[in-house]
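User: These chains co-purify. Model them together.
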Amino acid sequence: MMQGSPAYDAHVRFEHVRMGFGTRTVFEDLVCGFPRGQISVLLGGSGSGKSTLLRLLGGLIRPAAGKIFVGDDEVTGAPEPTLYQIRSKIGMLFQGGALLDSLTVFDNLALPLREHSDLSEDAITETIRAQLSAVGLEKIDHLLPGQLSGGMLRRAALARAILREPEILLCDEPFSGLDPSSVKRIEMLLAKVNQERGITVLVVSHHIASTLRLADHALLLLPGRSVEGKPADLHRSEDAEVADFFDEDLAIDDVTPTASETLGS
Amino acid sequence: MSASGVVREIGWRTLSVLAELGGMLVFTIAFLKAAVTPPLRGRRFVEEIYNQGFLSLIIVCISGLAVGMVLGLQGYNTLVRFGAEGSLGTVVGLGLIRELGPVLTALLVVGRAGSATAAEIASMVTSEQLDGLRMMSIDPIEIVVAPKALALIFVMPILTTLFVLFGLAGAYFIGVGLMGLDAGIFISGLKSSIRFSDDIGGCFFKALIFGFLAGLIATYRGYNAAPTAAGVSAATTSTVVVTSVAVLIGDYFVTALWGFRI
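Assistant: Joint model of the two components:
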């Protein structure tokens, strides 16, 4: 378990967080942070609490104990109106996209703008077209989410998540169920969002090779403890549990180059 | 089970019921606040009226007609034994307006629109759509729950009115058309026995109460569903069961209170 203040400028901090569901404890005393403006990846086996960590951060669930900070704002214990303010700084890409089934892609993206801005319908249309174009989607704004492929749905959801220009982007399993080319495409988009907008990105994924290509920082959740650091350092770790985790799931050749490097080249 | 186990079980169940009631009270307050606080979701409200009201029209009208025909047949055959078949309009009218119309319409609407509402909201929980709204700082109660619940409250008196009208038409068809009862006697019996404030007012009041119960229970069950396929199923089933029982029990109290008012 990481103890004390991290060496980096932490955009998000978890301080002695305890969390469980019924009799099952997920986090006993979680202490960790995520660096500002970088892509962090959350790794761990099934049930290790990766998605729970994102939901705690978004204030969708509350911990039994401990504190969670987004910048200087404390999420834990914040009343719903305060949470809404904090969430305005956070975009979230859900595993299934979480677009409203009954609305077209356009109306899904327009919803937060209509709710939280005074933009005219023309300006909203222009913004949405630009945003969809940025994620490589065009002429699909009249379709319902159910009419999109998995990759298109994920990109439309990403467009919605970054529409309000958040400071932090949370991605819950963005690569699951996608074909390799769609995975690469989402990878590139996340790297682009991070580089061009300086957004702090937290990615939960079982797709270890992909997330390590992408990440600047990694947090590995192990039973009863967590380990964090640079992905390459974790991969070379002499810690038996860490090594076992990577040995089982990672082909070394897939680790390099990072998507950021690919994008930069 | 030991004595302490029984006490623990009773205590646990009591706490569960209290937690459920508390949760429902908090949900009701949040719904009422969302219902009266701008912006009012006019477009969504109209869409829900279509989904819950318009799409229930056929089932309500056909059921009303069938119930009216049965009442006409049973009523005529019973009344004719006492030479009182001229009271058919009175019997059918009072039965439909005071009791059968609001209660049966509520049960039908719960079975069709209430269950669909609970299933839709529960599916939104399962697919994280409600969490998606929360993460965009949009209150799901305001944008999803309130329009659906309000629409159920709004459509219930309208559907009840249609049920009663079709029921009366069915009874008229049987009594006058098939059994040969005089149309004037049927209509005058109906007109002389039905009082606007007591019977029709009571019918509307019941329909509003049942609409409120159906809207609130369906949305609450869907909103608090477990995020699994079984959770969707449980929310749908419990909506139909709990609302049906609540309507039948509520019917007694509304009838009693409305009677005392008179």
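The radius of gyration of chain B is 22 Å.
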